[in-house]
């Protein structure tokens, strides 16, 4: 039996009894969640692979999609929920695609960053340079905008070369681009390949990448129990990571072709958030951050108008 299969078997056996007892007494709700291979989203994969969604009466189809395709799939009704950054939720709502954030997934503490050649020592030196970064509206583009904003540089004063986070890291390591925005697990390939390049700045200095799960407001109204179940299954995944880290890292790493050790290293640059963390963030922090993010999105013309009511972009009901 392979290591991945063995770990999956162990993870499933840990929750088999509870899964059988719970799922048998619940109606199953189907839903599709759109996300990427970003390390911060991986507990959702774990919840699926280890049977926690099933345990709580959910039949979840996880679709791996770039943020632009995620938006199109969600807007078309193919997805009921999505995992993405707060700035993306602001942009979607501003463009008349209503989505409600219901729980916090993670906050990046070094898992997103900008790679440069060794002769660059300050972000201000990037003025006039070409930067490989995902399309406007995606989290790497927002982080780049946030970094430029904090350093008094307009986005019009730099050039961009549209590449996905994975492609940007690969191009940087190959010497094809001199500046690149990326995130884990791909940013670790830059960390490990120090020849001719380095990480200039990350979300340690610029804490702008915060992820939530958001769902269609109509779906939430029609399926409140399923939304609570989604939070419960995610919490179970966090418990497994805490109590059985090797098995959890093996399962999550396999989805992005990483060993357990590689995945654990990627995960060390972010913090997965508990239900209690969500409560606290909803209570005091989300509105101030959304106000700042909205202004950056307006300045960079990602959106043309701000959402009417930022309070309508989240609902703390499901973590209370």
Question: What structural keywords apply?
Answer:
single chain; 320 residues; D-Maltodextrin-Binding Protein, domain 2; 13 helices; 11 strands; globular
Structure, explained:
This protein has 320 residues and is of the alpha/beta class. The protein has two domains: 217 residues, Periplasmic binding protein-like II (D-Maltodextrin-Binding Protein, domain 2); 91 residues, D-Maltodextrin-Binding Protein, domain 2. The longest helix is centred in the last third of the chain and has 25 residues. Helix 1 packs across helix 11 and helix 2 crosses helix 11.
Distance separating the two termini: 42 Å
Residue runs with pLDDT of under 50 for 5 or more positions: 1-25
Largest sheet: 6 strands, mixed
Report the average pLDDT across residues.
Answer: 91
Give the gist of this structure:
This protein has 13 helices and eleven strands.
Topology diagram in text:
Blueprint: H1 3-23, E1 29-35, H2 42-49, H3 52-55, E2 58-64, H4 67-75, E3 81-85, H5 86-94, E4 100-108, E5 112-116, E6 130-133, H6 139-150, E7 159-162, H7 165-173, E8 179-183, H8 187-192, E9 198-202, E10 210-215, H9 217-222, H10 224-243, H11 245-255, H12 260-267, E11 270-272, H13 275-299
Parallel strand pairs: 1-2, 1-3, 6-7
Antiparallel strand pairs: 3-10, 4-10, 4-11, 5-8, 5-9
């Amino acid at each position: 039996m392979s290591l991945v299969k063995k770990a999956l078997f162990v993870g499933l056996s840990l929750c088999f009894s509870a899964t059988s007892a719970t799922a048998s007494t619940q109606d199953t709700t189907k839903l599709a969640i759109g996300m990427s291979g970003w390390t911060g989203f991986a507990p959702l994969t774990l919840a699926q692979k280890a049977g926690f969604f099933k345990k709580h009466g959910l039949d979840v189809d996880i679709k791996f999609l770039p943020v632009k395709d995620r938006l199109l799939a969600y807007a078309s009704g193919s997805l009921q929920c999505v995992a993405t950054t707060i700035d993306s939720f602001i942009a979607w709502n501003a463009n008349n695609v209503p989505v409600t954030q219901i729980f916090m997934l993670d906050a990046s503490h070094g898992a997103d960053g900008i790679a440069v050649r060794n002769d660059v020592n300050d972000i201000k030196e990037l003025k006039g340079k070409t930067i490989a970064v995902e399309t406007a509206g995606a989290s790497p583009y927002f982080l780049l905008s946030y970094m430029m904003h904090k350093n008094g540089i307009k986005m019009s004063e730099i050039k961009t070369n549209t590449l996905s986070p994975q492609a940007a890291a690969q191009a940087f390591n190959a010497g094809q681009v001199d500046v690149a925005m990326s995130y884990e697990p791909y940013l670790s390939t830059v960390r490990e390949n120090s020849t001719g390049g380095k990480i200039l700045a990350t979300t340690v200095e610029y804490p702008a990448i915060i992820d939530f799960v958001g769902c269609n407001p109509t779906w939430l109204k029609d399926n409140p129990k399923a939304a609570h179940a989604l939070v419960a299954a995610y919490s179970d995944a966090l418990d497994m990571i805490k109590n059985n880290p090797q098995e959890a890292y093996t399962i999550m790493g396999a989805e992005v072709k990483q060993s357990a050790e590689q995945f654990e290293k990627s995960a060390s640059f972010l913090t997965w958030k508990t239900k209690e963390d969500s409560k606290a963030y909803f209570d005091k922090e989300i509105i101030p951050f959304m106000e700042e993010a909205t202004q950056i999105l307006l300045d960079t013309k990602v959106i043309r108008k701000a959402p009417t009511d930022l309070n309508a972009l989240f609902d703390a009901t499901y973590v209370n």
